[in-house]
Structure of Cytochrome c-552:
Amino acid sequence: MSVRPIRLGALLALLVLHMAAGAQTTGPDLIHSKNCLGCHRVDAKRVGPSYQNVAQRYANDPEAVDKLTRSILRGSFKKWGAIPMPAQTNVSEAEARQLAQWILTLKP
Ligand code: HEC
């Protein structure tokens, strides 16, 4: 009986670890939490281009993920219009890559 609390603790620890590892943040989660939607819509131009247009433009570009990751991290200028996108400093490199990959799936 005396081992029970320890086992329960271990089980809980495992469960928490498992949940942390399994809690996948998706592209849609990130565009909300990182405020991308302040300037972008998936299917309509706002301050920035729609993500569908971005996906379309880069559809045949083998370096698209790298390019978009860089644009998100460092900002983008004069690729779409007169308004620049500031560097998204609240986004990690891994998140930027995930966002780039997800945006590229949105080709209509
Ligand atoms: C302050 C407004 C603003 C915010 C916030 C913003 N963007 Fe942008 N975004 C723009 C504008 C404007 C452009 C077009 C820039 C240009 O002409 O090069 C752009 C362009 C882009 C592009 C295309 C870049 C390229 O190389 O063609 C991607 C991808 C992108 N944004 C993703 C994001 C993501 C992801 C976020 C959130 C982390 C975000 N943006 C937040 C305004 C914004």
